[in-house]
Amino acid sequence: FAAGMAGGLAEVAWVTLYRGTGGAAEVARQVTETVIPGGGGASNAGITGLSIHLVLSWLLALAYWRLVQPRLASLPKGTRFVVAAAVLAIIWTVNFQVLLPLLNPAFTLLMPAGVTLASKILFGLAMAGVLEAASPARTASIVSNHRHTR
To answer: What whole-number distance in Å separates Cα of residue 18 and Cα of residue 5?
Structure first.
């Protein structure tokens, strides 16, 4: 759960920094419009879009944790971060080059491609940071060190 929230909130922070709060609210409304056609004009479209974004963030991190993370255990820490960023860049490519042009072309025009790609890469890095901190080996090390310092 935490990895998805970290990734999703990293994106929200990035978009807010880039577009300001009003612009970020428009992005959230367009998320709603993408998932619920016609829903972008509703009075609660912004909060609905944010909620959809965070649920999708959680699902994405869950899928990554189940499908990709187990295969990375033997890789150096830095490489695991690179893999997470690369996987999210691939997801960005599918989203912004295939799905969104079909589902909601207006969404693809809200920000330059580089800004949206950076958003997904930040998601990957934030997610990887949480997963790295929560890995069984890291947890065991923290517990072991705590026992020895008592």
So the answer is: 20
Confirm if 111 and 15 have CB atoms less than 8 A apart.
yes
Q: What is the DSSP string of 4-72?
A: HHHHHHHHHHHHHHHHHHHHHHHHHHHHHHHHSTTGGGSTTHHHHHHHHHHHHHHHHHHHHHHHTGGGG
Reported as a single tens digit per residue, the pLDDT across 10-37 is 999 999 999 998 899 999 999 999 999 9
Rg of the chain, C-alpha, whole Å:
17
pLDDT value at residue 145: 47
Q: For the chain, how long is the longest CA-to-CA vector?
A: 59
The reported pTM is 0.86
Report the C-alpha gap between 131 and 3 in whole angstroms: 6
C-beta pairs of 77-84 under 8 Å, 24+ apart in sequence: 77/132, 80/128, 80/132, 81/124, 81/125, 81/128, 81/129, 81/132, 83/128, 84/124, 84/125, 84/127, 84/128, 84/131
Residue pair 62/4 in contact by the 8 Å Cβ criterion: yes
